[in-house]
Amino acid sequence: MKGSSILYGLTAAELRSYTEHGFVVRQNVFDGHECDVFRSAAQRVELKLLSDTDGTGLSSRYPDYCLDGNRFVDVQHVTVQFEHGDDARQLRVVEPVNDVEPVFDQLIDDARLCEPMKQLVPSDRLGLWTAKLNFKHSRVGSGFGWHQDAPYWIHDSAHVDKLPNVMVMFDDATCSNGCFRVIDGSHKAGCLPGCDDGRQLAGFYTHPDAFDEDAQVLIECPAGSVVFFDPHIVHGSGVNASGLPRRAMIITYQPSGFATLKSGAIRNVGE
Ligand SMILES: O=C(O)CCC(=O)C(=O)O
Fold it and tell me: What is the CATH number of the domain that holds 246?
C-alpha cells in the first residue's frame, strides 16, 4: 500500500491548494475504457430501478413522496430522486448507489480515490459515509442550487468536518451540460445560514447573502477526472441544456468503523 500512496497521494502543492480553496481537481484519473464501464453501470442502475415501475411508477411497490414539487421514492434504504418537471420520468439521483451496483461498490476501494482521501479525512483507515450517482440527463437534467453538504449531515454524524467528497466524472463536464461549480474558499466559514423562503428544503440551500457568488469556479473537465472537495464548501451546478449527459458519482468517505448515512451498516474501505 505504501507504493500506491506514493503513486496516488496528493502532493504538498495539491494539499495546500485544497486547504486554501476547498477543492482539488485531477484530470484523466480514469481512462476511456473505465469511463465506459461506469456509464454502462449507470444505465443498469437506471433500468433496474425503473423496471420496478409498471407505468404508474415505483410507487406501485414502494411509497413515493414529494418535496418542493419533486418526486422521491425510497426503495428500502436507497433514495431515488426523479428529474424535476411534471412528466419527468428519468432519474436524477440514486443514493447510496453502491448498494445497487457492484461496479460502484468496487470504485469506493480504488486507490486513486482512497490514497488522497486518507490525507483529506485524515485517517489511515477509511470507511464510506455515502455514495450518490447523479445522472444529469441531456436536456432535462436539473441544476443543484448553492449548498453545503455539512448541514445536511450534522444530525447524523458527529464528525462532519471529516466527511470529504470526491466526484468522479463519467462524461466530459462543460458549462452547457451543467458542470460542477464551487465558491472558492467558502469552506473556511463553517456552516453558513440556510435560505428561509418557504420551500420545504429551503434550509439546506445556502443563503445568498452568506457567500460571494462572484468567487465561483466552474469546473469543466474531461471524463475520467475527479474533484476532491471539502464538506463545507458551497457548491452546486447548472442545468444540462446540452444534448449530452453529464453523469457523475460523488463518494463521501469518513474514518473507518462508523455507520454509513442511509443503511446504518459499516462499509470499511478495502475489507
Ligand atoms: O451533480 C452535481 O452537479 C452536484 C451535486 C451535488 O451538489 C450534490 O449531490 O450534493
Answer: 2.60.120.620
Residue 144 domain boundaries: 2-31+102-255
Q: Region 181-200: what's the mean pLDDT?
A: 97
CA separation for the pair 137, 81 (Å, rounded)? 13
48-64 pLDDT per residue, tens: 998 865 444 555 678 88
Residue 3 CA to ligand 1 center (angstroms) comes to 32
- Ligand 1: centre distance to CA 235 (Å): 8
Does the beta carbon of 211 lie inside 6 Å of ligand 1? no
Total domain count, the chain: 1
Rounded Cα–Cα distance for residues 72 and 189 (Å): 31
Ligand 1 atom nearest 143 alpha carbon = 3
Candidate from 81, 142, 144 with most ligand 1 atoms within 8 A of CB, to mutate: 144
In-domain check, residue 69: no
Torsion sign across C-alpha atoms 71, 67, 235, 164: negative
Predicted confidence band of residue 5 (pLDDT cuts 50, 70, 90): confident
Q: What is the pLDDT of residue 54?
A: 44
Q: Is 144 in the pocket of ligand 1 (CB under 6 A)?
A: yes
- Tell me the whole-structure pTM to 2 decimals: 0.96
- For the Cβ of 8 lying below 6 angstroms from any atom of ligand 1, the answer is no
Q: Given this model, what pLDDT does residue 59 score?
A: 54
CA distance 162 to 128: 11
200 in any annotated domain? yes
